[in-house]
Description:
Largest interface: A-B, 49 and 51 residues
Low-confidence stretches of chain A: 104-111
Largest sheet of chain A: none
Mean pLDDT of chain A: 81
Number of strands of chain A: 0
Strand content of chain B: 5-15%
CATH architecture of the largest domain in chain A: Orthogonal Bundle
Number of strands of chain B: 8
CATH class of the largest domain in chain A: Mainly Alpha
Distance between the termini of chain B: 45 Å
Shape of chain A: flat
Oligomer: heterodimer
Radius of gyration of chain B: 36 Å
Distance between the termini of chain A: 62 Å
Mean pLDDT of chain B: 66
Number of domains of chain A: 2
Strand content of chain A: under 5%
Amino acid sequence: MTASLHFLTSDLRLLDQIRRGDEGGLVALFESNRRSIRSLISRNSGNADDADDVLQESLIVLWERVRSGTFDQTAKLSTFLYATARNIWLTRLRQKAIEIPRDLDPENYSDDSLSPLEELVATEQVSMIQEALGNIGEQCRKLLLLFYWEELTMEEIADRLGFANADTAKAKKYQCKKALEKALGVLHRK
Amino acid sequence: MIMSDESSNHWTDDEDLLARYVLGQLHVDEITALEKHLEQCKRCADAVVAERLLSAGLKRAGREGLKQRIAARIAERRTPAFSRYKAVGIAAAIVLLVTVAIRYDWFTKPEIQEGEVQSIADTAAPAVQPAAAPQAGAGRAIADAAEPTIKEKKRVPAATSEASRPERDAEARKLAAREKAGMERRADAVKEEEQVLGKQPSVLLSSASKPEELWVEGTLIRDKGAPQYMDRAAEVAEAKNLQLIAKTQALSIDTVAARFSQRPLSALPPAQQRKAGNQTVQTLFRQSPAGLHLTLFSEPSLDEEELQEARLRAISADSLVLFVGTRQIGYKLPPGWLRQQGK
Lengths: 190, 343
């Protein structure tokens, strides 16, 4: 009982950290779940590097769900991370056309993975967008990521980036998007 | 909100509405109404596709950034911890060593008699120096034993006597002959590779090669003819591919003018043969005044008709996808290579 309470308070503290945008909580979760994920992946045709990568991806899923308010805590964070890591690894095995090991349950597999071609295009797209984001200034970079990735409202963005109000943030977002499109156009023509 | 295509107003002109639609932040009734308009308005449909790509790209860029930051913080945390443990370990080992040394009087100078030195020297090099200069002889013999020449280090034991020198010379000659033979074999291999490539070595075979040639390992993205690809995931992927191809067409992704030819795997130079695999296609890219030419080394061989109808498309400045028959092969080129070659 004491142990469960400890986990509960620890999880609540970590979730609160993530809600506040503190990435330190993710590092703590990485350390505490590393061993179990390594064990899962090594039993299923993967190695330690694969395991670390999959755990990082799982933490990002957690981060996005918590930040968007769609995370429903019905289990311990470690249970959520384990299930997410298993699904991510299963998807990767399918992409590599490797036979699915028995202890990964295919029933839990959600088929929203990218095809190899989509993956290739997406990777290119990301690298181009990352490069373009580097050319539009720090404030614009932050604003666009807060809006499109973290899906914050204009009020929240105005508050976070110190704009006078939501309308100012909205006008700035328009300018930043145009700047990004211009930077992408330049990269595409290169 | 005017939804007619005839009108100059399009709902996708409303940046906020467009973004909320793409981010899935609208009510289902609103979505239904907006999608009705999309069926009739190509311009709006294109704007939605572009917004979706931008949104997806930004999401992925955000994730990648976070992933890199997590990895950096983990690495940062691990390095000092490792050093701390290491430092404690080293300190403990030193304390233990000093304790043992003190306990067994390792720091006390041993009282060695002159005769004992002579005895050690004689054991090391009995025939090197005349008996009249025993100490100098001992020094030379120890120096000889401790510092053999670089070649000798490979095979001669540290304390080798004068009597074994002819054997050492013979062994050195053998080694030199073996090294020479090895160099000749390597030179033959390079020549063989050059012959296979029409006497034009590729960049991966020689650092002094021509910049207009490049070996690239193509990844077999999809092969409808290969049964192992036709599982449930592949069927879903295929449907997505069709959508994706439509998207890439909407983005006016370039078709690259190129000619194609093929050769059997056995014609691959040895260095490339070692890299050949089931899911890869070793390909030689060659740029000439006539344009880009790709030589595909694959088995089973491709249908000549399919090869003539093959299309090469650039999905970015440095990534290409070759559509040949039922196959799609992805190529990632070194940054700027196509541009350097005057694409």
